[in-house]
Amino acid sequence: MKKWNKLTIFLLPIGIAVNVVGGQLAIMLKLPVYLDSIGTFIVGSTCGILPGLIVAVLTQLLNSITLPTNLLYIEIGMLFAVLAHFFAKYERFKSIPRTVVNGIIAACMSTALAVPTTAFLLGGFVGTGASVIVTALMASGWSVLPATFVSELVTETMDKVIVMIIVFFILRAIPDRLLVKLPNARFFIKDMDEED
Amino acid sequence: MDNLEFANHFLEPRRYGNIIRDLNPLNRLNIFLVLGLSVFFVSKYQYGFFMVVLLFLIAALAGRLKNYLSVYWKIMLLFGLFLFCVKAAFSPGVHMIFQLWGIHVSIESIQSGLSLISKVLSFSGVVVLFVQTTEWEDFTYALEQIGVPHTVSFVILSSFQTISDLGQSANVIMDSQKARGIETDGNLWKRAKAYIPVMGPLVINAVSGVEEKSIAMDARAFSAPVQNSFLIELPKVTVKEKAFVILIDVLFVALVVGRIALWLL
Amino acid sequence: MAFIELKDVTYTYPLMKEPALKNISYTFEKGKFYGIIGENAGGKTTLCNLLRGLIPHFYKGKLRGETIVNGEDIKKVNIDLLSTQIGYVFQNPFTQISGVKKSVFEEIAIGLENLGVPKQEIIDKVLNIAKLVNIEHLLQNDPNALSGGQRQRVAFASVIAMDMDAFVIDEPTSQLDPEGTAGIFEIIHMLKEQGKTVILVEHKIDLLAQYADEMLVMHKGEIIAGGPTKEVLSDISLMEKGAMLPHTVLLNHELNQKNIYLDHVPVTKDDCIRQLRTRMSS
């Protein structure tokens, strides 16, 4: 295995903690969105796919301590880690409009992944705010699949657009002298001289 | 306890004096996982509910019933009651019991509800029980014993500390926001506006400290090219324990194989 | 014997135009105690990073000239191995606590565990160092709930416990009271007595004057003065370059302007008192 970038190792716990605390804060402020993937996007975009995956998986394992059904959605965090890397690579964190589009892309993909699990395994019930929408839709005659799809897409899009905007500002605030030492520095800093 | 006494307790392997908690963490994980996964291979939902009861007994045996319940009750409410209601109300079925607007409860929907929640409840119980009976540092020690690098231990243990540190800072920032007149309750827009001034500085500060953290851990020979030693150790796994785990695993494999054979035939 | 030799070293951090170290040449001998002083942002911490091998291995950037550690070019040195040979303590006490241990005892033991020291030896060393650094009463406490000063002492103890041949120490007393500071200096002096090389960045010039064998003064990335402590600190002109000098040197300067001359420039209090006594009795 290639030797790990030393800073990356120490960023992993921070990424995980940012995910968890960000999510807790959203709950505390009673916001209708999760905001529990900020850390995954930051680590994924600055350090690459594998560190992002580790953050995503460990976060989901930690979340499952209190809500074990979170384990069923472990692949969605992983999707965000991969997306984060490629968003950084194709400079999609450079402006707010691009960032918003990122959020919509991420939301569509994660909805596509989450709906089968929610609809078929859990009958539309995830135990979060989205469940209320699903239950309401189903009670008014929708069947489980479209009801789950609509509710997930709505909440996910709101969530991911906000997450992306927060990530955009955080990435801009990380000092260059730190960024330059991270594996994905070349995506963010153009005039890096590679000598020594 | 004086310091010498405190120091000398490191000489003995750490024991809790409890049959469940003194199992090697990985063996405990193995046993619990088998219990949790077995419900997916037994079609009768009664088995799942039996498992839920069994988990309560194990929690009591481990002296952890109170801690177990403090987490598990929410899962029972959310996935035991609500999930069952949703399933029972909306799953398709032929033998209708009750019908109102979109809601249609049938014998089949009740059965599918019971079947689902028995599985969700027992698997969730296993996860909660493992966490409630295991110290994380024991778990990472056990991982290192089977060759997992100690950076992994660091990441796991450090995550917990960082969560608690960031959580505390979040509260401090929130309080100072309130003191400066920024509302953290009130309408949705106001609450949403409070989020970023709290999270922003929190994340930036944490990320900025990473450089020094890395240097500091390096100074403690974190990546020294030598085999590290352990101040705290766990007891060696007994033959009895090993045999028990193997027996459990064999039974589980037999169950899975039997189940697949049934499908195929 | 030379421990670290710097020959015309110039170093620039990544993305920076101005070098942080300019044309630095100096030889650090084994077993000596070096004090580094100078204005803020004068390059002291950068020099520490170089001596510890973090430059160029961690910080990257452009390193010119030669840096020889134990006879080997620093660019070729294995930095993970170097971390077992040169101890490093720096200023910020908050980032130096690992955050993965439940007691100060275990916190101090981390470095020893990583060096593969046997358990009984770890226990003895931790108990010893705790006594030395005066943190015995903290050993069973949670390291994540300590005050800044307490953390600073724990961080210091954690590195000193690893018993390496050389220590680079960057402002270890920033959060300590005078008593705590004096204690740290005594330990550093003791390390030197044990034959260890110590390189210390400090603002507390009076204590440095008392203990250091040699002094380096840094200004805008250059070493503007370096050599035996007495010689360096006698040069009053260093004041103009932002260096703090011992009070006794300033006193001597005042006396000189009133045409009172002592035998030599006193850099420590004891020396000053002695000279003044002799002078008054004559």
Topology:
The complex is a heterotrimer of chains A (196), B (265) and C (282).
Chain A: H1 6-28, H2 38-47, H3 49-66, H4 74-89, H5 96-121, H6 129-139, H7 144-173, H8 176-179, H9 185-188
Chain B: H1 3-8, H2 25-38, H3 45-61, H4 65-90, E1 96-100, E2 103-106, H5 107-133, H6 136-145, H7 150-179, H8 188-208, H9 210-219, H10 239-264
Antiparallel strand pairs in B: 1-2
Chain C: E1 2-12, E2 21-29, E3 33-38, H1 44-51, H2 54-57, E4 62-69, E5 72-73, H3 79-82, E6 86-89, H4 104-114, H5 119-132, H6 148-160, E7 166-170, H7 178-193, E8 197-201, H8 205-211, E9 214-219, E10 222-228, H9 229-233, H10 247-257, H11 269-281
Parallel strand pairs in C: 3-8, 3-9, 6-7, 7-8
Antiparallel strand pairs in C: 1-2, 1-4, 4-5, 9-10
Main location (chain C): membrane
Family (chain C): Belongs to the ABC transporter superfamily.
GO molecular function (chain C): ATP binding; ATP hydrolysis activity; ATPase-coupled transmembrane transporter activity
Rg of chain A, nearest Å: 17 Å
- Strand content bin of chain A: under 5%
CATH 2nd-level architecture of the largest domain in chain C = 3-Layer(aba) Sandwich
CATH superfamily of the largest domain in chain C: P-loop containing nucleotide triphosphate hydrolases
Query: What is the 3D shape of chain A?
Result: elongated
Based on the coordinates given, report the CATH architecture of chain A: Orthogonal Bundle
Helix-strand topology string of chain A: HHHHHHHHH
Oligomer: heterotrimer
Topology pattern of chain C, helix = H, strand = E: EEEHHEEHEHHHEHEHEEHHH
Strand order of the largest sheet of chain C: 6-7-8-3-9-10
The helical percent of chain C reads 25-40%
Largest sheet of chain C: 6 strands, mixed
State the secondary-structure class of chain A: mainly alpha
Distance between the termini of chain A: 23 Å
- Percentage of residues in helical conformation of chain A: over 70%
Contiguous uncertain segments of 5+ residues of chain C:
none
CATH topology label of the largest domain in chain C = Rossmann fold
Shape of chain C: globular
Structural class of chain C: alpha/beta
